[in-house]
NAD(P)/FAD-dependent oxidoreductase
Amino acid sequence: TDGGEVRRHDAIIVGAGFSGLYQLHLLRDRLGLSVRVLEAAEGIGGTWYWNRYPGARCDSESYYYSYSFSRELEDEWEWTERYPEHGEIRRYLDHVADRFDLRRDIQLDTRVTGASYDAAANRWTVTTQGGEVFEAQFLITAVGCLSTANVPAIPGLERFAGEWYHTGRWPQDGVDFAGKRVGLIGTGSTGIQATPVLAEQAAHLTVFQRTANYSVPARNGPMDAEFKAWVRENAAELRRKAREATNGHPFDISDRSALDVSPQEREAIYEAAWERGGLRFRAAFRDILLDKDANETASEFIRAKIRSVVKDPATAEALTPRDHLFATKRPPIDTDYFETFNRDNVRLVDLKAAPIEAIVPEGVRTRDATYPLDILVFATGFDALTGPLIGLNIRGRDGLALSEAWAAGPRSYLGLQTPGFPNLFTVTGPGSPSVLTNMPVAIEQHAEWIAHCIAHLRENGLDRIEATPEATEAWVAHVNEAASATLLPMASSSWYLGANVPGKPRVFMPYAGGMARYRSICDRVAREGYEGFALG
Ligand code: NA7
């Protein structure tokens, strides 16, 4: 503030999405701490505040992409569709904020620009764009994993005469595509969700594809009365399954190998999985992400589906993924994605055949053509996991910058703490299973672990917790080993590896050992007096 006033709290939480809301509730209402949440956006919702592009919805199913900590909350909220749309998720989070009276401790429109640790005082000083200064013993980042937009540096963008948008920073009031020639760059989960909706809304859509992708039908639809009743009856069991699952989803993964069945049986199993749709397609066999030959059967099944849906053979061929195996990059799910390329007003441009050279005032120029456009949409992803954290300009002991500590890739203990940064907790940080999991399950586990940890410190008259370098080295090695036990590191261009951002170190960032295993490791660490952490 102008008067140089410093606001003091026990804890500062950065971000008011799924993580920040629950962390506030736990620290304030269960532990009785003084807490302030600082949020850059003008509303609650975190990632879901910004992702409002046409077709934006969650790939986890609504009845388990939600909090499980309050039975009453669960009972009073009704989802309308199998997969929640962005607006419905925001309404849910707004409801949570009201219901638990969270808003009075959340400061919106407040972008954190720096945070530094003073060892003598054992305090974090947090500064904001508006010039405010906060001090707290604990700093908790709840900034999401896919929240720093990646807009590729294509020459000429500043001279584009039309409008352009990144999907992860979508205007609050939406964009009017009626009558427009629209270009979409990117065919990850986002581009694949947006394509069919843009094709409906725009006069013409050009999809610029660098890498063809696999996608499985979501089979979205309304939650009918029968399904709602089934969810209510089985709520406790579904939550238990989600908590105990390797990926935070309450469905069973088959215990059969794709290679142990006859080709006919395999085809029938994949057909049934294709009909059920969504992320559970992967559950058809246990070894799709573990064995290359097993995976190839799933990859080939989807390639055949693409050929059977897309009528123009050249377009079908260009849409057929060959550079990576199914689900080694985050697998999209869709509503009529491949079907959309049968429309008269949709064109696919294969950038492997002719890369983008520049953006020109009238549109996008590739090596062999110029495509005139009124609106350009970047569905080009995010500086995942580390981007939002490094963007906070965090400095720990002796002025050590997080960007320096992580110069060769993120190094955390359990994804929760980094040596040199005492009392800093990173919810769903790199090294945690977050992005490989149904996110709310990972978030609840992290927020609860952090709350227990802070309670432990206070009960024992301790002020400080910091990951040791040795435990961190061991965890980084374990994260690598867990990834290597799967096919995931094989997709050399995935954002799991940081490969989508030029100059970013190539390190497999999430923990691929499974949510259940991760949870038991975290529980054991806590039980054994916070093994691997120095307490003081
Ligand atoms: P992704 O999955 O990172 O996808 C980004 C897409 O944009 C992908 O197809 C990229 O092609 C493409 N891309 C990125 N940069 C360029 C340039 N310079 N030129 C052309 N094409 C480019 O991001 P999403 O937003 O779809 O999904 C992120 C996560 O959000 C998703 O996994 C869910 O967890 C939710 P590439 O494959 O790199 O060749």
